[in-house]
Amino acid sequence: MPLVRFEPSGKEVMANDGEKVIDLVKRLHLPLESVCGGRGTCGRCRVQVISGDALITDEDRRRIKSDELSSGVRLACQLRTDDELIIRILQPHAPSKHVILERTDAKLELDPSIRSVKVRVADASIAAPTSLESRFLEALGHKGIAPARMPLSMITALSKAVSEDLELQVLLRRDEVVALGKEEGKGAYGIAVDVGSTTVVAYLMDLLEGTELAVHSQLNPQIEHGDDVISRITFSITDPKGREELQRLIIGCINHLIGECSRTASVPLEEILEVMLVGNTAMHHSVFGLDQKALALVPFAPITTQALEFKARDVGIHVAQEGYACALPNVAGFVGADHIGVLLATDLDELDKPTMVIDIGTNGEISVGDRRGIVSASVAAGPAFEGGNLSSGMRGAEGAIDHVTIGQDMGLEYTTIGDAKPRGLCGSGVIDLVAEMFLSGLIDRTGQIQASRDPSRVRKEDGQMRYVLVGGEETADGQEVSISQDDIVQIQFAKGALHAASEILMERRNVQVKELDSILLAGAFGNYVNPVSARTLGMFPEVPLDSIKGIGNAAGAGAKLALLSERKREKAKRLARGVGYIELAAMPDFEDRFFSSLYFPHAEASKFPEALSLLRKGK
Fold it and tell me: What count of other Cβ atoms lies within 10 Å of the Cβ of residue 349?
């Protein structure tokens, strides 16, 4: 068993013969980005072999320059441990710096499943030697609460709490006693959690007052098995312990965030009585340890679409002993509880005029509707809109180029998150860049890079054109930031699927573009993307710019609404049952619409007159 040491951490591990270095990195929880789940396609997991033999694979040759290969640079997902190695991690993973914004107009409605009452338990007597539990339940009955259920832990707590002439504070979840004690002002708190494929966000709420007390977020640790849900589903199927590993990672993340919120607000964990979860169907199944195999196979039928609620301890979530973990319902295999949260937060079913809601992350959900009905679909946007699977792409972390402009003289300007030296392109930066390249004539309507427009920045490499934003001498890690022809194709595929889906949904609802009241952009995509750039690319129909509105983390807002209101939970169930889900793969015209939507902004120029009017002179 060869010994492998990692620098600069100095951590060592005994490896199995032939074990991949990426697996050792995961075992030691070292910071190394791996977007593609170890398939060798993203080129992010770069390490340098300082000592020991390291074979060069075909994927290494495709992703790493020859001079770097000569210096020992390899992909960790391709490098196997057949010898003792000393390895330096070249691109440690950087945590996200983007703030989780919320700009929905959702109004919190206070109707929690938890209520607090005070009761006085009568003494027993020789004439009426009734049990303590019976006297306690009788006292609750006098408050109009009957019958009440008593878990064993609450019977035990009752015997410790009751003494002569004592008033008890009792917290009930519907008809079940979930907490009681002698303390004055015993709190009742809940946690709303948006389990995103990329970012997990937790909100600590006072269930009796409806106030937000703390919010914390972190990257979903499942990312080590791939940025996109398909990579993770594949891992859960192919690895005998994959499902358990993914659940362990996400539950550990949720517990960490709950602990952070608890400490921030000085709220004891034993006073957190409910957790409300939203997430796409794959994340939902992962939290509850459900088999995800069916989500990867036609017809993509999930194990369950029902709203769920279990004792939190049965799921492994650390809150009050009798606390509950709940989840909003799913709609289909790739339209999950997170999108129901978005619909809940936007009240799409109550609007008078047709509205489009788009929530783009590593997967994309889109709905068109109003009070007359809602239709929804899921698009395989992939992680391209979040900077994933692109040669210089990265998440929204420090050093990510987040906005780009190209002037009339082809001069390029950009900003980075944290005003740091550039490290790569995040989603909003990529969308800006491709839009600016199109408007400047650097790419034509088919997406082909036009080298003649700026020969100083465009070069041919490995048979394809590449546009260089920043040379390696100006970046944080010495690697240039650029965009290749293949990268642009990835953006075309993602935006083409999104636009084709929007057309099909509008047609199904018999809605014309001019009839759309607004397009609401949810999630990190809606927070940071420039609407002008997104519209220029043809990501969605051309509507007036003031009709395009970012609404922030609407899924998280929906989770909070459901946490605080039983009526909202019932509405979420009605929404899930009433949404008309459209499986795009089964639509005979989807392919034609998709191919037309690959053009910038669209094959039919008449659909985007405003965008095309922005094309700059000299093109």
Answer: 19
Residue count (the chain): 619
- CATH number for the segment(s) 114-181: 3.10.20.880
Is residue 165 pLDDT above 70, yes or no?
no
Report residue 144 as tokens.
């109009």
| Pairing assessment for the beta strands 167-173 and 114-120 based on DSSP bridges | antiparallel
Average pLDDT over residues 174-182: 89
Q: Give the whole-angstrom CA distance, residue 115 versus residue 328.
A: 21
8 A C-beta contact, residue 359 and residue 279: no
How far is 360 from 351, CA to CA, in rounded Å?
A: 22
Range 289-297, long-range pairs (CB < 8 A, 24+ positions): 289/243, 289/244, 289/247, 289/315, 291/236, 291/243, 292/232, 292/233, 292/236, 292/237, 292/243, 293/233, 293/236, 293/237, 294/333, 295/229, 295/233, 295/333, 295/334, 296/230, 296/233, 296/234, 296/237
Laid out side by side, the sheet with 167-173 consists of: 114-120, 167-173, 176-181
Instruction: Give dist(CA 247, CA 287) in Å, integer.
Output: 5
CATH number of 337-379+501-613: 3.30.420.40
- Ranges of each domain in the chain: 3-89, 114-181, 337-379+501-613, 384-490
Beta-carbon count within 10 A of 573 CB? 15
Specify the pLDDT at position 617.
54
Which CATH number applies to 3-89?
Answer: 3.10.20.30
Q: How many helices (H) and strands (E) does the chain have?
A: 18, 26
Lowest mean pLDDT among 9-13, 96-100, 290-294, 563-567: 96-100
The answer to whether the beta carbons of residues 308 and 326 sit under 8 Å apart is: yes
The answer to whether residues 395 and 558 touch, using CB atoms and an 8 Å cutoff, is no
pTM of the model: 0.85
Tell me what pLDDT residue 618 has.
46
Is 3-89's fold the same as 337-379+501-613's?
A: no
Per-residue pLDDT of 243-265, as tens digits, reads 999 999 999 999 999 999 999 99
